[in-house]
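Long-time lurker, finally posting.

We've been working with non-specific serine/threonine protein kinase (Allostreptomyces psammosilenae) and I want a structural starting point before designing mutants. I don't trust myself to interpret raw outputs, so I'm hoping someone here can both generate the structure tokens and explain anything notable. Sequence follows.
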Amino acid sequence: MDATLRDPLLGRLLDGRYRIEERIALGGMATVYRGVDVRLERPVAVKVMRAELAGDSSFVERFIREAKTAARLSHDNVVGVYDQGTDGDTVYLAMELVPGRTLREVLRERGPLSPREALDLVEPVLAALGAAHRSGLIHRDIKPENVLIADDGRVKVADFGLARAVSTATTASTGGLVLGTVAYMAPEQIQQGTADTRADVYACGVLLFELLTGRAPRDGTTPVRIMYQHLNEDVVAPSALRPGLAADLDALVLAAAARNPQDRPADAGEMLAALRRVRAGLADAQLDLPAPVRDAVPQARPAGEAVSDGAAVPDGDAAPGGDAAPGGDAAPGGELGEDRAATGGRSAPEGVPDGADSAASPGSEAVTATGHAPDAPTTVVARSASLPVAGGETHHTRPVPTLGTAGAATSGPVVPTAPAGPRSLARNPLTWVLAVLLVGVLAVGGWWFGVARYTTTPAVLGVERAEAERLLDQAGLSVSWAEAYSENVPAGLVIETDPEPGGRVPSGGEVTAVLSLGPERVTVPDVTGRPLEQARQALTDARLVPGTEREEYSDSVPAGSVIGTDPEPGQQVRPDSPVALVVSRGPAPVDVPDVVGEPLLQARQTLEDAGFEVEVAPERVSDTDVLAGAVARQDPSGDGPAPRGSTVTLTVSDGPETVEVPDVVGRSVPEARAALEEAGFSVDVVDLRPFGDGSVQTQSPEAGQRARQGSTVRLFAF
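Top reply, 14 upvotes:
Generated this for you. Predicted structure of non-specific serine/threonine protein kinase:
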């Protein structure tokens, strides 16, 4: 039966939000699924932690803290972290789903790239790391599997903030082991278990070397051999493996991959600036140097890859059942591969026996790991410096590689073209004596490097700084301090050490201790009166989440602006807490008084008392029903509501309409009456005809005056 059919998470809805649709990758840390955010209706990648990690409360707390830190890192070249949560016993991350493939798949398919292509791929990786380093975040696990190339050509860096959380959990459960991919780990990560921005720079230098040459600079067949090379051998110039590469490219790689951290660029931003200077100084012919035929470049499987049972793949790096990396076929029993010829490796350097390729020296922790192959889990290697370092210390000299007649690098011992035939130890007793002596020397060396020069980190969790310093000083250890917020540990007490209590640390070495700042709280900003979008941004800038929104009427806050928040401004809350917003709808509507027919002054007072502004129209109108000086019209009318504070326009009456009085003097009474009535007047005749001929002698109002239609004109006739 297909394993996916037995996966209980398929079809499940995590936290009522993320529907799990398809398993797309298995790894030593987590299983990655394709899912859907049903709330926002968008595809997501859901990374579900392994049960043994999810059951570790200290891991979960650190994982949540690191995930939040990564989520705050917003950059175009970083795979976004959308959400983190727990659903029962399931601890998960919801992340951006990037359709495409990993850089490892590109290397497997194409081998070495042109310098232009290599720089085009490393530049966005450095840009992403530069943003992280400026924010105080270190990746710790840069490798081709964690560089994604989207279908649209965008380059994205994955798993920010996760390596530290997982490495601590793994250390606690494996007795002093650190997590990482050996081929890309900086020497200080291997020897001291510490990492800063320059460890990421080192990994980028190794990555650029691999893109230019088609192989990693460390060619050991086991993690132990590769760790030895990290500690004791300088990286060769890429041009030693690929003649024709520009000297500036060699210099960039060698500076980034220097064994001494002080010799590297300080952070990714500094390396990015150096990369851009190198690119600007190269001619097109140098940038577009054709990739060599793949058979001309040693196509070893990725350095550090060991053969395993094939049961796991890196977190998010390959789908179940995917192709194995070249040379990475599974072997029964999970034995570590020892065939140097298959990887183009050199013989073991002086001080490392041939058998060191398959086992750690005496006294070291077990090496339970593979390298960085896409179908192998991320490597777990011994934190203790159980690898012999030539001369008793790490040297930082960098010999200049020379080219032999065939163009291959000739620094270091040369691998014979054919293995010498085996000799019988029984025929030479001296060989037995030397072998016994060698075993004794190795046993003593292993005891020293693996046990004797180490001490145990004292338990200082939960104590004050002064007491922690005293205990560490008694153990012969120095301390560097960091600070972090904690919901559980009061301010001023130690919440974490690296290595953890009981972990191994070189005698006289340094322990990093983290002092609690107490619960982290942020202040709810005062966004009252701000437009809604500005208020949302202010909450986001304060590391809060804009919450629910409801509308209310307000006489003092304009519509669309914020009336208040819940919690109220000034309150202290946890980061990422939701803050509800009350948004103004403007003033509440009120009924408009009807003032038509009222004198203007009285009408104005009535409207202003009701909360309205009053405006008088400049033109008056005639109205037969409204006296002059009274309100003839209003807008809005007095038959409905309007927002309080809005304006009501009043139009004043000029009284009834008037017409000019016709001149009827001298006319006969019937003629005069007809003319006046036609003009709209009533007629009143005072007849004095016994004293005259009966014509109109006078009229009132007089001719030419204006009078209201319907009014009476008096005629005097005699």
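Before you design anything, note these points.
Confidence is low (pLDDT under 50) at residues 165-180, 296-426.
The first helix runs from residue 51 to 54.
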